[in-house]
Amino acid sequence: MSSPYVECISECFIKPKHPIEESKQICYLAPADIARLSLHYIQKGLLFINPVSNNQKTFIQNLLDNLKQSLSLALVHFYPLFARLVTRKTEDPPTYVVFVDCSSNSPGAGFIYATLDMTVSDILSPIDTPSIVQSLFDHHKAVNHDGHTMPLLSIQVTELLDGVFIGCSMNHSIGDGTSYWNFFNTWSEIFQSQGNVHDHDIPISHQPIHNRWFPESCNPLINLPFKHHDEFISRFEAPKLRERMFHFTVESIAKLKAKANKECNSNTTIVSSFQSLSAFIWRSITRARCLSHDQATSCILTINNRTRMQPPVAQDYFGNLIQRVSGKSTAGELLEHDLGWAAMKMHVAVANHNNIVVQNYFNEWLQLDEEFISATSVSNSLC
């Protein structure tokens, strides 16, 4: 018996509903954007059970039409997502600049309709995440530099036997997780408002801010010290791994937080739920790895810089303003101490991340050290 596979039924490109004056300008990539050219696209999806319907074919067609229409309206606000990356090179003087071309020459955002002969239960029931889930996204394994030829945004709607999966792939050089969910939530908001008001009058809760943030005295046209992208773009082929999703209840997280704060024995510091959970997972994975006592290990978190900068940057900023912070220890020290000790490590890493740290990072990046442009993972780290 053959294994189920995702079959592509149709593919098209979606452009903004109407022309946008701002899109005629070049959208420059800031340092935090360029630093992600070797990373993979952000890929998230939503799984729905089909509503009761007498005509499944009509339901799917109406869904696809409404998704395309609302996406076209959402792109009016998030216009960089229908564009492509462009590299401009000159020899005299030598320049190498990557930016976003939002001109009308771009084909648009990708939109795919596919089918899969599996049920919602087939996706959710297995202990390990089925490998077929990777095929529910259009840009699996693509790196952000591929946005020169691939859509910066691609939507794949996969019809299951009793449900629908909507997979969204967004180029990480265009925006971070906050930007991603601002787009996705706006698209959802427009989708749900269709039919209630005129297309041009659909209000959105959060208008994206497209003016890219650059460090002081930084030229928006950042000249990279390369002649070809092979000099700074790397592709990582992960070994075949088992993937599993873990769910923590509200009650269990509350217990972890209470335990961590009690063990911290601090009257002034409150360790957060996320720091407590991160510490718990860090210790659990380190124990399972059976690392040597003196082996260095770390727990890496991605942190939103918007509120930590002076002056703060609005949450509606569309782009990348994130950094990595980490708690560090040896395997032996981490396991010899309790949960509260590890949680405090994570708390201090987050608390110490302020405007000075952010500014220093970007000032170092502007020295164009290749290590900053081609970011790599850290061994024995939990990300």
Automatic annotation (TrEMBL):
Pfam families: Transferase. It comes from the Eukaryota. The keyword Cytoplasm does not apply. InterPro entries: CAT-like_dom_sf, Sec_Metabolite_Acyltrans. Keywords: Transferase. Gene3D superfamilies: Chloramphenicol acetyltransferase-like domain. This is Acetyltransferase. GO terms for molecular function: transferase activity.
